[in-house]
Hints:
There is one protein chain. By secondary structure, the chain is mostly helical. The chain has one domain. The protein has one helix and no strands. The chain has one helix spanning 3-39. The model has no long low-confidence stretch (mean pLDDT 73).
Amino acid sequence: MDPDARDRDVRAQGGLSARFHRETSHRNSTVPRAFAAAIS
Length: 40
């Protein structure tokens, strides 16, 4: 596998990973508040 292709692959995975972590942390911050509001 040539280095350029590997770099592109790593960057693509990094972008997906960053987006996944952003969405996960966003969910983690909004869901507990909504849940707390629902049970209060």
